[in-house]
Write a structure and sequence with these properties.
The protein contains 15 helices and nine strands. It is of the alpha/beta class. The longest helix has 28 residues, at about 365-390. The chain is globular, with a radius of gyration of 24 Å.
Length: about 400
């Protein structure tokens, strides 16, 4: 019965529908359903064992972690989850309302550094009796669902069917591609005198400038955890310096309008400027959270100040490019607006991995991945040309 009614799908809906579905579960199942939900929701995180999933590529893994692919019923999206596949792949699904990326990084790095043999060798592990006859896993909803009458079962099935339809429509309308750029990575970037994060941000700026024909509002998450209860602030990648760099590089590869030494200097200016903005944001000197707080101060029916009603303010918050990176992981997320792109990136020593998403109807995936590769190769060429000129001297 529990296999037929896959209630995990109820957590894929928007927050209003999900809250309504939870209320319906309790109405139909009474105190025992509420007790089961409380037990599930009290966990710090959920372990999802996708025994029948065997992803063989980074892209297949990304889609599985993003929306569950064929295993969505084996999720509870109100909770942070660890996903383990049949062939040993491990993914982390973060519930962002609870926490930001950096605490998750600590957990993920701890998991990656520990092996099964090392865990077995720990003194604490030796005292655990894993051969107990008591089952380690049980279905907490099964006894409740068995008490449902036919009408209640049908009502629950209708809720699940509605949630599944909404989910399949959402998944079908979105696209995801993983770009594993292997030409170089963080080692080359650092040896060339650049901040790796600022450098990649400028590559994203150039690629999206060529995609859209202009720069658009770009979000990079910056940690403010040095403050009590601090979470994030916005670093805006669009700046006068990044604008000058993109225009100098032009809409096509090897635009001859500016010399390569001039382009390289503009790249350095843009990365230096971006690094400064990141530092200011992490010190609590950003503007976005402040303006957001001022917006929330307005009472219902009260007119906002002219600054917050200005069209430029509205346009500046339409994040057509949303970006984020987490050290040692390959993050991914969906676009935050219908006309936007989500770009998660991981800067490794010898490569860079990008997980790119957008609505499928735009057909941007192959183009933006090609533009990212072109930008990174063209920026490397600027550096190598300078090195060649210096060696001749």
């Amino acid at each position: 019965m529990e296999d037929a009614i896959e209630i995990g799908y109820l957590t894929t809906s928007d927050r209003d529908k999900c809250a309504h579905a939870r209320s319906e579960l309790i109405r139909l199942g009474g105190a025992k359903m509420e007790e089961a939900l409380t037990k599930l929701e009290s966990g710090m995180l959920l372990l999802c064992l996708d025994d029948h999933e065997n992803p063989s590529s980074m892209e297949e893994c990304a889609k599985l972690y993003w929306h569950g692919d064929k295993s969505t019923a084996n999720r509870w999206y109100d909770k942070t989850q660890l996903v383990v596949t049949g062939n040993g792949q491990l993914g982390y699904v973060g519930e962002h309302a609870l926490l930001d990326g950096m605490p998750a990084v600590g957990l993920c790095q701890h998991l990656l550094k520990n092996t099964h043999s090392r865990i077995q060798s720990l003194e604490e592990a030796k005292s655990v009796v894993l051969s107990s006859a008591k089952p380690l896993v049980k279905n907490i909803f099964s006894p409740v669902l068995e008490m449902f009458d036919e009408h209640s079962l049908q009502r629950l099935q209708d809720l699940v069917d509605d949630a599944k339809k909404d989910l399949f429509d959402l998944v079908g309308s979105n696209d995801l591609k993983v770009l594993n750029f292997k030409d170089y990575g963080g080692t080359f970037i650092k040896n060339s005198g650049f901040s790796p994060d600022a450098y990649i941000q400028m590559a994203i700026q150039l690629a999206t400038f060529r995609l859209f024909g202009k720069q658009v509002a770009t979000y990079e998450s910056t940690q403010v955890r040095k403050f009590l209860h601090g979470r994030t602030e916005t670093t805006r990648s669009v700046s006068p310096a990044s604008n000058a760099f993109c225009k100098a590089m032009g809409n096509h590869v090897n635009d001859p309008t500016h010399s390569k030494p001039n382009k390289l200097q503009m790249l350095r200016d843009a990365t230096d400027s971006h690094t400064k903005f990141v530092r200011l944001a992490s010190d609590g000197q950003g503007v976005d959270r402040h303006l957001f707080a001022l917006t929330l101060l307005a009472k219902d029916g009260e007119e906002l100040p002219s600054l917050l009603r200005h069209p430029l303010h509205a346009r500046s918050k339409l994040w057509r490019v949303s970006t984020s990176t987490l050290p040692g992981t390959s993050p991914g997320f969906g676009p935050v607006c219908d006309t936007g792109i989500g770009i998660g990136y991981d800067i490794k020593d010898d490569c860079c991995v990008f997980t790119v998403t957008s609505l499928k109807k735009h057909g941007w995936m192959n183009k933006i991945n090609r533009l990212l590769q072109e930008a990174l190769l063209e920026m490397k060429d600027l550096i190598l040309c300078q090195s060649a000129m210096r060696s001749k001297l």
